[in-house]
Amino acid sequence: MNVTSICCIGAGYVGGPTMAVIALKCPNIKVTVVDINKQRIAAWNDADLDKLPIHESGLKEVVAEARGRNLFFSTDAEKAIEESQMIFMAVNTPTKTYGEGKGLAADLTFVEKCARQISEVATSDKIVIEKSTLPVRTAEKIKEVLSSNTKGVHFEVLSNPEFLAEGTAIQDLFKSDRVLVGGDDTKTGKAAVAALVSIYSNWIPKEKILTTNVWSSELSKLASNAMLAQRISSINSLSALCEKTGADIEEVSCAIGMDSRIGPKFLKVSVGFGGSCFQKDILNLVYLCKYYGLDEVAEYWHQVVKINDYQKNRFAKKIINGLNGAINQKKITLLGWAFKKDTNDSRESAAIYVADVLLEEGVELHVFDPMVKKDRIYQDLTNLWEVRNETKQEIESKLRRCIVHQDHNLALKDSFAAAILTEWDEFKSYDWDAIADKMSQFSKIYDGRTILSKKNIQSIYSIGK
Fold first, then answer.
1. Each residue of 435-457: pLDDT tens digit?
2. Given 7, 114, 277, 289, which residue is catalytic?
3. Which of 9, 305, 307, 376 is 20 to 30 A from residue 269's alpha carbon, by CA?
């Protein structure tokens, strides 16, 4: 099939950048990204590229070249679905907060709605592609929904998971380690796989495009994220042991990473992993293992999340204990809210949970992040507290004690403690000696991401020290 028109449902962190790069690399294909969020689409279409809804290095340049030529953003999903030959599903798949699998399984509500809309609108054959991270055998459920089409339309469902790291998403798309395409071992299934492979082949070497069955593709994404998160939890668990024994976690990490069988990546001690994928995907994996009666395997992977929660709580307790447990009404500063540098995404950020513990202790919390705005910070905290069924009055009371700054100096002035929770490069350039002088007389600075040189700044305390 010679694909000339693509539709992507979902203009978020996956759909937007991925489709922008496809449009850039395939100028002969019309690419339309649709979303029900009018404000998000308006931001994608804004003449001021600094107002794009996603901050990614290189994204503005890609959008500037392709938008209006063969890249379009719209709220008219029906028109885009009808005109397309290939449809990417890049909608949100959060962890369920209700019913069977609550707290573990993926909530496929948006995926089902997306498939139902495709089934209702389509009048010609379509290749439907799972781009969101989904549990194994979700394709079967999508096929069931699509089969309700009464217009004689044939659908092929492929799995094409994303392997993007926020902050480097555009480079990840330009030079992927691998592109994974899963499809059925039938004549039409193979043709659909070939059609998608031909698109990626415009810029990805053929040897980096891996084709599998649908189920292997779906599971590979969950497994990849679980393995990466496992490394982070492993090194963080060792940091706790280092504190008790006097070992230096950075030295231990370096020694481990020099083993060619292990390597140095994802062995940096931190307050814990965040982002939209790691925890969600591991919990999804835990649910699948439980569903298939693999309780021991489920508990193994669940421990990765438990260690991550333990590390965030341990770091917050370190601040409390460092101030002798007397932190009520004291000013404490958090530097960094995004879950990692070079992104404005704060989903599941460690900062949210550290802030929660500190606010519960009655502190006056001051926050600064170069990219995350006040509204997002307040929403992150509110979402957490609403899940716990806290009252509106309780939430408002705590939010009044959370002050968000646009200037790090104001956030740090007279503070009793500062915790660096995101490894923003700009934090390295701060004059920490001068900052320490303006903080409280008994202040401490906690470096949760080990981004500063403790050799030069004696007041810095690493999570692993």
1. 878 887 667 777 765 443 333 33
2. 277
3. 376
